[in-house]
What does this fold into?
Amino acid sequence: MEFRDYYKTLGVEPDAETDEIKRAYRKLARKYHPDLNKDAGSEDKFKEIGEAWEVLKDPEKRKQYDQLRAGGWRGGDDFQPPPGWSGGFGQAGAGEGFGGFTDFSEFFENLFGGGMGARRSRSAPGRDIHARVEIDLETAFSGGQRRITLSRTEPGPDGRLVRRQQNLEVNIPAGVTPGQQIRLAGQGEPGFNGGAKGDLYLEVEIQPHRLFELEGRNVHLTLPITPWEAALGARVNVPTLGGKVAMNIPAGASSGKRLRLKGRGLPGKAAGDQVVTLKVVVPKASTDRQRELYEQLAEEQDFNPRSEMEVAA
Amino acid sequence: MTRLTIEVIEQETELELNELCRVCDVSRELLIEWVNEGVVEPRGQAQWRFPARQLGRLRRARRLQQDLELENHALPVVLDLIDEVERLRREVRVLRRMQD
It folds into this structure.
């Protein structure tokens, strides 16, 4: 496993005071928090920052980490815990410490996550797990299978917490929207002494789409059309999530005009619409004949789009 | 592979306080505080009921509070601004598609 340089992650010197580290963490956390930053990779970056802060804010953890660093380990080194490493300060299981992006590195789990599982004499239900599931817009529209990988920390045979990857096939129903919660009963953490298992909650997130923009259950599409389709009206095929649909363009339509395809958005009790915004694309006059036709049109049309601007044509 | 029981919490559903605490992983005391601060708006007087479409907002509030240590009274402002930024970003993407 890779040795992580937590100081470098936060951009601070190894002798920095906790307050300084905190300022550095806060600044980076604001920058990369996945609720604030939708760029690809921001979530991974945020996890790294969070993990670094989790260690460096805690004097005990920091001391342990500094001891390792003093032993010569540097970021990126292939790291093995030294023999007799006791590890195990407190517990860092899924769902603790972070609001929803908890997924510490193997390095972290090995150093600090190896404590004894909480021992309880009384029966208690297992904790719920909260995770997010990212799907594409097509899956949100028609439903489908999605494989998710959960990283769980569970007590092993010797009582130490071990990390285990679990794959789940989840049937995503048609018509889910961003922020919606899916509950998987009994897929949370195991209970203690016969207590019921917790549940797993998945929060739906939808990836950006090549053509469509989602707004609630409505789907937006920009549709390129020709000047003659705009002027004369036409019947054209329009892509929708459910396949192509024929749509009438009214005569005299301009760029920016919005047309609505009822019920062609995401399905649901009240299905969304597809909102089509027209975009007139003007072809170049590349032959003599085409130039001639444009010139003819210019002569025929008494049209000045700048008439409101009080400038001469 | 184990057969999973899947339940989608429909947007139209209304949840009671205790249910909401569990789904959002937030304590009862904190949730009451959040209602008072306007993070979330319940329906009903004697017994609060919460529309499930607020769940995304509440989960986000919890993440932001845990990760950035935001004060309760700052949460509604931040959440509203994020909504506004998301709306504007979508609008910009739609307009960009008009130009390309």
In short: The longest helix of chain B spans residues 75-99.
